[in-house]
Amino acid sequence: MTLPPQTSLTLSIASLVLPLSAxxxxxxxxxxxxxxxxxxxxxxxxxxxEAWDDNVYLQDEGxxxxxxxxxxxxxxxxxxxxxxxxxxxxTFSYTPEASFYxxxxxxxxxxxxxxxxxxxxxxxxxxDLANAVTDINxxxxxxxxxxxxxxxxxxxxxxxxxxDATIDRHGFRLTYSLGRWFLRPNASLYLHDxxxxxxxxxxxxxxxxxxxxxxxxxxxxRLFPDTAFTIGYRRGHQHQAILLGNPIAYANDYDRFLLxxxxxxxxxxxxxxxxxPDVRDFQGLQAAAFDGDGAQIFADCVVxxxxxxxxxxALTFRDYMQPGFGGRSIYTDATYEVTWKHKFTxxxxxxxxxxxxxxxxxxxVARNDWIYTxxxxxSYAFNRQLSGELSYSYDKSESAVPLSSGREFTRNFxxxxxxxxxx
Length: 423
Description:
Structural class: mainly beta
Radius of gyration: 22 Å
Strand content: over 45%
Helix content: under 10%
Order of helices and strands: HEEEEEHEEEEEEEEEEEEE
Number of helices: 2
Largest sheet: 18 strands, antiparallel, barrel
Oligomer: single chain
């Protein structure tokens, strides 16, 4: 199952999946100990992070340039699991995340992160249903970017994700095994419902709704017990809402053909690779200079290396096309990332990461942005209940389009957090 990936700018070392990542909190298994014979398990925790952001608005020029602020984030978390048998298991988690900016109070926001995951296995049939919803309560007004070229690289995803919106991600798959072969029907939905006001003011950051839904089938063959090769097909639709009454939008149907490898290629190499061509049929009215004919690449590839018991290296490559959330555009979204973490002791883990992100917009939009990120983290578990994390990241963006200096910025983000598991 492939859920449409969401464009993101690395602000911290969350990509290394270490303790204080709010995303990992929303998906982690409950750590509480169930009563003897009980199928229920509970977990309650709380985290606080104090951070310094030296470029809140991702601007190196103009009135919003280099606005720095301390940032306090409070993240309580609750999860419950019900596992009566292998035929049915369920986990629900809820993590509200409240963020407060000392020098930019208009960027204060509250995120409600909820996840419900259901799964089961009976004989030759296994199934799972993954649901994640993030509701953001923040400003209902976009930012006016006065710099040359408008919004910062990538259209300012961190700024976008502090504004009113609801993000839904749902995925289902069912696997039927027959010897070494298996069939896997699946479906997924990504929905981004923006709730900010639109404006025609110069430099104003508009956000328009979009969604992506697809369904299809994989045919797989287990060449080895832990390694499978797959061939798949998806039929899908992408939607982009109309902005300010202009009829130009990039809704489209697509046929996606995939080849994949999944599982342990070697005892220390785990792969989840799925790639192939997208063939699209655009609907409605597009700009005259746009040519959407032909095939575009789709790739969702993660390779995890564990050369030692203490080291984990993750290599990520993602490339796909989607309508822009700024409206009246479509772009290719590409991520190249490597992360490494080393466990020195049971308590101490250190990691570093490097990422290159490219948002390449299709004509007639003149925008081709790169964001380069380096990051580092130190996490320490004082005991089973208490852990801490110190992280740092540096972002540098570049625009491949002349006369667009307002899209380029640098950013330092330093954070210190602590997390306590009550049970």
